[in-house]
Amino acid sequence: MAENITFGLAADFENPHTLMKAAKRCRDKGFKSWDVITPFPVHGLEEAMGLKRSRVPFFTFIGGATGFITGTFIAWYMNAFDYPLIVGGKPLFSPVFPFPVMYELTILLAALSTIAGMFILNGLPRHYHPVMKAKDFAATTDDTLRITIESSDPLYDSEKTRVFLQEIGGTNIQELED
Amino acid sequence: MSTEATATGAIAASPGKKDWSKIFLFGGLIFLIISLIGVYMGFTNGKARPAYGLLIMFSFYLSIGLGMLLLTMIHHVFGSGWSTVIRRQLEHGIAIFPWLGLIFVPFLLISYLSGDPGFIWKWFDKTAVETDVLYQAKKWYLGQTRFLISYFMYFGGWIYLAHKLRTYSKAQDVDGDPKWTKKMVFHSAWGIIFTALTLTAASIDWIKAIEFHWFSTMYGVWFFAASMRGALAVVALICLYQIYKHGPLTGMFKRGHLYDLGCIMLAFTVFWAYISFSQYFLIYNANIPEETFWYNMREEGFWWWISMGLVFGHFLFTFIYLLYYRNKIRAIRMIFICCWIITFHMLDLYFNILPSKREVYDMYVPYPFAISVWDITAFLGIGGICAWSFIRSWNSSNIIPLKDPRIDESLRHHGR
Predict the structure, then answer these.
(1) ipTM of this complex
(2) C-beta neighbour count of B115 within 10 angstroms
(3) Which residues of chain A lie closer than 8 angstroms to B81, CB-CB?
């Protein structure tokens, strides 16, 4: 019963330096479902955590390509196919004159899909996360650096992980409820 | 502390190596003299191609120098931290203006003192263009005295700015006083406005006015965008060369710097395309013969393929290539795209300069595209002198601005 409702273990660290070392140990140990909570950006932490680059650019590219194709199609369909119309002695379709349309739609859909991709990959919108249940959660937005290891991780073991967190220099080790 | 040791170590090590600057100087002078002989021979035979080779290459190095000057000033005005490591390389680069000013003198001699003043810029030949309606309309700008005064003003301003930025930066290396940074910011603030205006006017005077019949409001911005692209590619190559085989910038010029340079290169690729396309787009849509002839001439013969090369090579390929993160952090991939951009930047200048000199003046027959031997001698000649000026400056100063207030931030620059 207790294990079912445990989200994971949390440990606090003295300063960014010890945090960085601890993060590297967690990464090398092979944990997958874990996270670091800091009140300020720590440069180089994503490498210490072994995080890969964000996949948001993929969404951006798909959005941009869709926009470009849509823009081209709109211009061709309206002006050259559905209702052929000569304007200013220009050809019915050419990549030159409707370029602003193609270009604007590229930008628009690329930007929108970037935001959408960011939301999807972040798991947003989300109003609640188990780490917020910790009594001193507010401290992690002020002066506390915290590592959480989730029980869903295949390497997780409530006793061994607790010992591991102590080994890497964690203090104030607490169990988080799900 | 360790930085200082590395930097001074690198400088101490350089006299032991062969001093390449003299070789570049003599090589450059020899090729430049060959080029000038070519210009003279062409002049006596009434062939403008060698002189145009020199003009194209002059524009090439001028654009890179101006791009570097602007990058230096932009760095100061924005108070940017990350680019401090790169800034010293830019400061070496902007030492070329006095020499470029001298290399321009033959054009002035031909236009003002020779028997054929319209040899380079047709409008200098008053008797030939006096009845030209468009010349009469543009007479207020196309004046010989104004042209000469402008030449001195442009180069005077650029030399002055470059000199100030270089001396202040070196002075800061000695005492580390932040007041030098403030002075550099001050000179950069007015310098950006000055350089923007003079760069526009210079590109109109020296490149666009070859075809004084034409109209375009985009020309100065085009030259600015092209200059920035050329300068960024050259700076990236210079920095990469200095980390090659544990070169002097090793450990200082890092992945983050390379990545950020790649990002600005991407931005200016888009900007260049935006400007070049806008110019084409407006002329295409307005469809007035007074403007469209410029592009029509550039669809003749091989120029068509150059135009397509600029659209798909200079823009599209570079744009897609630089979108990918890995292409911006791997040195070898950046070297490739920098060389690519420099090559197409050169073609862009060919495209803008050469067809405007018509083979038959009264008809729309552009000079055919060809890379003549005089282009190569001019490229090597001016290039040798620029390399000499760069290395001479490099030898006489620290590898990075050691005591710049932001150097620490730059050395710790973390980018991904």
Answers:
(1) 0.79
(2) 7
(3) none
